[in-house]
Amino acid sequence: MKMTMKNGFLSLTAAVALAGPLAAQATDVRYDFTVNGGGLGPLGNSTSSGSFSFDNSIIPVGGGLVTGTGLLTGLSFTWDGVSYDSTTANTGGLEFNSSGMLDGVNFGTSCNAFGGCGVTATRQDWDISGFTFVGPFDSASFLYSVGDGQFYTGSVGVSPRLVEAPTPAPVWLLGGTLIGLAARMRKFKPLQQPQLVRLRS
Fold first, then answer.
1. 16 is a domain residue
2. Which residues of the chain have pLDDT under 70?
3. Domain residues for 93?
4. First-residue to last-residue Cα distance in the chain
């Protein structure tokens, strides 16, 4: 089966169309935070560090509040001897300023899709909330319980990490695909126009 230059061009176009979405992948944005248990209670003056991340595709154009329980793509935090991740604690909401920078958070162990998070005094529970992030390092409030029927308050320092660049693999994949197809197309010649042959009578 012969392949014409036209068919080769169509194959190249299809490859570009398929590889394009691979190159335009979303990026995880990560923040580090440090929690202090406050001056009172069984965990007073205790500290713990953690990090959280979200996909930059959720940032609304022009900024604003995004609510939902599954906005965090990653979470690493240990408090009161319990380790939490994005399956055991997640968001109520994330807020962004007009430049698309994170301007506030609300996440913890008991959040709902409407943006709210709560703490139950009879179990290990916590919530980090604050909508005042305007600088490179800002604070939020930390409300927690150790299951003794009491609520305790502390503070949270939040610091953004550098935005992680998307993996270069899709770009190399696209480049390799284009080079390979271009080399392959050079092997194919367009079909010759049929020639009229005169028959001797």
1. no
2. 1-24, 131-138, 162-201
3. 28-160
4. 35
